[in-house]
Amino acid sequence: MPSEPAAFLWDESFLWGLLSFRALRERGLAFRLVSAGDIRRGRLREHRALYVPGGWATNKMKSLGQDGVRAVTDFVRSGGTYVGICGGAGLATREGMGLVNVRRKPLSERVPSLSGPVRLRLSPHPLWEGVQGDVFHIWWPSQFVAEDEGLRTLASFEEATADAFTSDINVGDTACSEQAGWAALEERYALNLDPRRMKGDPLVLVGSVGAGRVFLSLVHFDTPGDENGGRVLANMWGEDQSPFHGDQSPFFTSPGSGNQSPSPSSSRGGAGSWGTGVRDTGVRGAGALGTGALFEIVEELFEVGVRNFLWFRRGPLIQWRRGVRGLEYFTLYEMVRELSLRLPRGAQTGELVAELRAFAGKASGLLLRERRALDRGERLTFREAADPGTRALREELFSRSKSHGGLFKRLLEKVDRRLYALLGEEA
């Protein structure tokens, strides 16, 4: 049996990779970062499990390529375990690698923009050992239609809490308002918004594929500050037992290696601490975040959105106005911050600083254009904008794709490569 801990696929994860990295480290759980290239070169043979965090599943597929997809499929069918969170779960579906007979609902039937704390209906299973209550977090997931008899639903959607949002609409405010109703809002937004449409939908699936196992979750158990989610991750890794195996040996760690329980300090902290900075891991690069202007640039860009009421901090993430690329800006903010914390003193950042400044200058202008459009009551979505100048800037910075593209993607990839090297050493 391979002796290495879980392989953690980093490619095309970005913010969601950071989210998972922090959550697993916080719980003291063992893993090793791997790239799509590592998988194509056969590195999965050294591991017992593959963990794939969130992100665009289509981009993950492109990164893996046919050889990588074949390597993952062979790994699982030969006895390995696949764990996919949100986009990582989508990667395993029929629209992705085809690892399981699960498809994603058509967009016309989904509630595509639901996020935040929700209540689940939990099926009895050791995975929920030590969990308090039934509230967990989802962040803009797809929705599953499970047609695989080898899979069991461990959790399904029950209801959104009052603190959840669907698009930029607060669920609690809408539920108690006599003026607003889901039907009227859906007509205005031309989008499914009512979270009740999701009732009963499967969110957590587990089962067998060949000699291996799969665990697919649209629930983000890796949400910072979520004690219930952290408890589930610890159960998966076998802190107390292994719910996927019938023995007491750790699931994702090497036999005989023992399990690392979270220290008192690592398992505390509210979800809001994500928004105010990285939890202290004892790692400090170049002296402070001020090294370079790297973080100063993205911090100022982020504040442009705050000052213009285009987004606000919301627990571990942010909430943005419809039509604005809020998540992309926050992704860049968090990844550059993390890189700034870890860069060694004297690291060469001049070229990256110049590219960040150029991007931030154009992006600030775009945000101000979008603010004025919203003030005029214009319809604004990621595809639509009345002003030709706004459309041109959007295409240059982000492309026309809903997933990452344009100057943003090229800049993000440069940050990502440097961060991957630093985090890989740490993990």
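The record above closes out task 2.4. Task 2.5 opens with a second protein, given below.
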Amino acid sequence: MFKKHPKGLYVLFFTEMWERFSYYGNRAILSLFMIKALMYDNSLTSSIYGYYTGLVYLTPLLGGYIADRYWGNRRSIIVGGILMAFGQFALAFSGQVYAAKDGFGVIFFIIGLTLLIIGNGFFKPNISTMVGSLYPDEEIHKRDSAFTIFYMGINLGAFLAPLICGGLGDTGNPADFKWGFLSAGIGMIIGVITFYIGKDKNLVTPDGKAVGMVPTKKNKNHPDYVKDAPLTKIEKERIAVIFIISFFVIFFWAAYEQAGVSLTFFAESQTNRVVGWLGNYIVPASFFQSVNPIIIFIFAPLFAWLWTKLGEKNREPSSPLKMAIGLMVLALGYVVMVIGGGIAQTGIKVSPMWLILAYSFHTFGELCLSPIGLSVVTKLSPARFMSMLMGVWFLANAAADWLAGQLSTLYPINIDGTTTVHYLFGYAVKDLPSFFWIFVVMAAVSSIILFLLYKKLLKMMNGVA
């Protein structure tokens, strides 16, 4: 599987690995930093987290447009990476001075999040686009496998990040959060250097043409001028599919991204994290965010192999069908949390296995949906709008992350252990099972609707599966 792919894939693999180390290192401790250092309550923490992560995935729409029209993928990735590194360093400084009564730490907290939001807009859509650009049209069948391998890089970084950034920052001493943010910034710098060193030699098409360069401005009277050519009927239908599947992934990520907020609250307050055979060592709540990526890293090669083998036999499920399966598997993960939450609601701190089992289901659902979605955008997008349409995919992530934060504000157990009843469209969220049922229903209903639509979507994809 690995020998069949160009070297450029592995340059992007390691670049993205370090960027994801930076992002997920930040995510592992961000909500805990707000609660333990800035002294925000669960509701305000969830809301800020939702707006921040939503904006992180909103700016790629603009970043993709700038890359398509002016900068190219390479320049955008380098600029975005540098901005994100400085964002992490600003958060580290916020962690250093968070206790200042003049609010100096909060100012740098806002500056840090802002730089991360802008930087991600330039970085995220462009590196994903470059993966697809390494393959000619006649090798389009390799892209699902390539994106799954690429996804392994993402999750290798995501696995290491909570252990290192969380281990340094989430120590029980709020003053140590700065070391977690600092390590995330250093990881981002390593990612930029990796990309810069490897880009010229390896980021090329099979015929040696460089990918990701600054777009060439052509004369409108020249026959090669295609940037603003009208969309064909097939192109319009394929773009419509991108928008439709992007809508459905909103509900997947809104449930999945509870990992950074409500599931972290559950790990912090409702999970027994004491390991007796390690001298009663208390596992940091941030460590649980490594469960998902390590399972992906183990099983991603199996999924890549499975899609390739089924494709060779013309039995591979279509991309929309894979995504519908992913949503249903995610719903099963929250069924686990409904049961575990019911036990925790009695006041007993539950076994970590409830979270681990739930994250396992979430991971299998993710492997059916996320790398497949990235691949489908590159296959369906007209070349002249590929980065911008990748931005649309991340726009769906933006809506999902914002929704994730707002739904997490409904978490019924407060920091002090008291319970508050919330209402969602008249539905009373009065305990942990009723909270987790929201995500079971949301994911399952979305899956069923997508199952019903997938044949129509397949027709609109006009031969791209």
